[in-house]
Fold this protein.
Amino acid sequence: MLEFLMAGGWVMWPILILSLLAMAIILERFWTLRATSVLPPGLGWEVCQWAAKGKLDPAHVEALRDNSALGALLAATLDVRHWPRHQIKERVEDVGRHLSHRMERFLNTLGTIAAVSPLLGLLGTVFGMIRMFMSMLEFGVGDPNRLAGGIGEALVSTAAGLSVAIPALIFYRYFRGRVAEYVVEMEKQAIALLDTLEHASPVVPTGTARSETSDDPLGQAQG
């Protein structure tokens, strides 16, 4: 391994560092962007049941906010449930963009690694070829086998750069696509919650006078 690094020249060290950084980002994103962590199964349906029954306790909403990314979006929807529908949708889209930005953390770094690694490899190859031709200028062509070996060593850095860039680019595109799918599904469940809130009927306790009922059943249930 050490001989391989030495053959590629000094650019092999930054390529090695970028490969370790890319691996760390990929593992971290795989853990953070688990479906069960971002979109807990059944959470949207459960919150819709809360809304339909008027069980919107503030403590439940705060717990929902800390539950997951989907929970944060649904909690933001519940926070403005008394607003007009178009304003609630704008709020959902705004919060969705913030959550999308949070889920895309480190992805720009991964994309930069995918772009820079092959350039570093090419730079190492260029420097290697320059050294080889300068040596030929000073000592002559000499042994053809040695010349072929020098060219092979110069190409090591390019191969290393591509070996880092290709998987980094693949995972960069994969995670971007996964985040986009999550955002669409989260907004879909938020709209389903909004529809439930609009169609929720007020729950009037038995024996309560009509004049004492609130015009806002959800606010009454929350209180």
Notes: Residues 201-223 have pLDDT under 50 and may be disordered. Residues 39 and 185 are 8 Å apart (CA to CA). The chain is about 80% helix and 0% strand.
